[in-house]
Amino acid sequence: MATVQISLPLPVLPEGWSAPNDFKAIGALSTPNQRNLEPVGPHFLAHARRKRHKRTFSEDERIQAQENVKKVEDEDADDISESEDPLMLGRDAKDWKGQDHYAVLGLSKHRYRATDSQIKRAHRKKVLRHHPDKRAATGSSEDDSFFKCIQKAFEVLTDPIKRRQFDSVDENANVDPPSKKAASKSPSAFYKLWGPVFESEARFSKTQPVPKLGNDRSSKEEVEEFYNFWFNFESWRSFEYQDEDVPDDTENRDQKRHVERKNNNARKKKKSEDIARLRQLVDDCLAGDERIKKFKKEARAGKDKKRLDREAEERRVVEEAKKAREEKDKLMKEKEEAEKAEKVEGKKAKDAAKNAAKKNKRVLKGSVKDANYLLPKGQEAGAKRVDEVLGDVEAVTGKLDNEELAVLAGKLTGLKLAEEVGAVWKEEVQRLEEEGKLKTGEMKTLGS
After folding, report:
1. Distance between CA 421 and CA 370 in Å, rounded?
2. Facing residues of 235 across strands?
3. Which helix (H) or strand (E) element contains residue 24?
4. Which residues, 6+ apart, have CB-to-CB distance to 281 below 8 Å?
């Protein structure tokens, strides 16, 4: 290393400086000792390394760079280490839209889940391996085309907008839906195969977190929430990344507007196709979900139970109404029969009373007949006398009810003498006159 010597003049002493005259020693120097000094530090170590291996500065720097690359690769081998595809190494940097940016940086297994730290580490690793200066130092004939691909991938993935646009069309991150046969092999196969599909599609959701598919133990509310979410899915996915490049020249404005309209129409078409694709995917999953079938079966069973309960209740009401109607008819029939029997009995009693009244009237008429129409014994009763006595008897019996007739007939039964029969009749006439049923003196023969 060349040594540079610089001569600098000493500063001018100030006026009035008198140090040599005013100097006073306050101590003495110690006795000098001889010691061995050993050179240390990174620069000496580099010098020693070059001397030991007999390397030049450039050779040592190249070898150290290779060792640093290996060290970085060993440190990052845990999560961002991937083998490089020879076809990818030969890509044309101009076709940057067609390249897989994650694969270029060795992040194929991470993709949209890759963090900013992982992207930076992966970029550093690729740069250390494929930097043109480094490749030239190793004598490689590889051009800088792949290095430009690395730089473009880093540019896209570190820009939030550009990365979002690339993630929208990154088909390598998609998970293909399983076939109906594969998903129905076992109860767990359906959830194992369909779960990753919806986890992959969930990256496009405006609403986070996204409901999980769940398993066979998921409740009806959880399953309904999952399918309602996906049937009303709101996606931020766009397709600007696949736009045709708009010419930058300002001379052909019509061509520029034409390309912009073409790109806009293409985006809308792709968006519609993506919505239809997702809807079909959800329909296919729903069709094979045994939980939906189980819930429908339970719902039908519940409806059948309600229907059976309703029918049983209707039958019970009808039977109770029928029973009440029969009971009512029975009571009415019994009442009618009782009334009819009562009526018959009443008629019988009435007929018996009527017959008894007739008999008692005969007894009353017979009593005056047997008593010679209340004339002394031996005296013959003429027609006039008979008519007068029987007329009085009819008048008195007309004022009596059946009970009074029976009482009067009982009093007259067995009496034969005119005096005794006349006395009974006289007593009865007096009673009727007192009660006002007969007028005094109205009777010609029975009251005297």
Report:
1. 9
2. 205
3. none
4. 177, 197, 201
- Return the residue matching tokens 């599909």: 197
Q: Find the helix or strand (DSSP H, E) in which 226 lies.
A: helix 220-231
Which residues, other chains included, contact 358 with Cβ-Cβ below 8 Å and sequence gap of 6+? none
Are 285 and 193 a contacting pair, CB within 8 Å? no
Phi/psi of residue 9, nearest 5 degrees: -70, 150
- Asked if residue 372 lies in contact with residue 418, where contact means CB atoms within 8 angstroms, the answer is yes
Tell me how long the chain is.
448
pTM (2 d.p.): 0.54
| In the block, residue with structure tokens 């109860």 | 187
Where would I find the H helices in 101-186?
A: 101-104, 116-130, 132-137, 145-157, 160-168, 180-183
The model's pLDDT over 385-439, given as tens digits with 9 standing for 90+, comes to 778 778 878 887 887 787 887 887 788 787 877 788 778 878 887 887 788 887 8
CA distance 106 to 150: 10
Greatest CA separation for the chain: 216
